[in-house]
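Support reply, case 0932

Customer input (verbatim):
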Amino acid sequence: MKSLLLLLALFLSPQLAPTTRAEDPAPKKGDAKQETPVYDEKAIGSEQIAAALIRAKRENRRVLIQWGANWCGWCTMLADIQRKDAAIAKKILYEYDVVKIDVGRFDKHMDLAETYGADLKKNGLPFLTVLDGDGKPIANQETSSLESKDETKKGHDAAKVLAFLEANQAKYLEAQALYDAAFVRAKAEGKRVFLHFGAPWCGWCHRLEDWMDRPDVHELLSKEFVDLKIDTDRTVGGQAMLERMRGSKEGGIPWFVTLDADGKPLANSGDAKTNIGFPAAPDEIERFRALLVKSCTKLTPDEITKVIETLAPKKPSAR
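Our regenerated output:
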């Protein structure tokens, strides 16, 4: 029904299509959910996807493209259930990098959708596309079949949405296989390994990873290290590897260790009580500097200082 109405509006005039469909709930004035648009109408879809693919490939996740528009009530309802349903929210947090692409009145990003095999005019909005880490489409899904059939519960069926996400998530990798591959590369490139452990729910882990991904930081650290991230929740054997490397079941994450190309530990972020985590406080930053000094053979003292300066807060200039 919703696809038929969307096509009728498009046929009559894409620019004069109603802001809500007959079966869509009308936005309520003052409703907080409506104050923040679901779709960024100024974003460039190809750039959104490119950025998501970098993260997805690094983390062995999928990219979930949600084609839609802010005028589409069903698009808003899909966004709401993803945020409010605990099981769906966790599944997306763990398994997907979400990209919401605005298609306007079917006059924006249509060529982009076509390249991924998404027929939006035929199927209506919202429409879902799942990409693997290399950008290959592995699923295109209209969402009418994901809607609740219970007339008293307007919106999408949480069980159906969750089943779709579970069916298309990436297969978990083996921690030991990732570990072995990193050391093969380290020997080939004459580098050392920076092994860090994290999990999707860990905010400080994301801060560490985002910092390491900064172009200026990555350029320097990649001269010395092969970056190896092990997810303790999503990598098979990841938690056991953390406990083995740290020598204890106790302690938080992120936890990291530097190793030479033969796997010999050089320095680590500390034990259960002294773990640096993400180096934010002055003493943590100084301990991280000491770790780099002990671990690095390629980075010069000046380059190590440049790395540390990206962590230290800038002092206000004197007036």
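We compared this against your earlier run and they match. Two observations from our side: Residues 198 and 231 are 5 Å apart (CA to CA). The chain is about 45% helix and 15% strand. Please reopen the case if you see a mismatch on your end.
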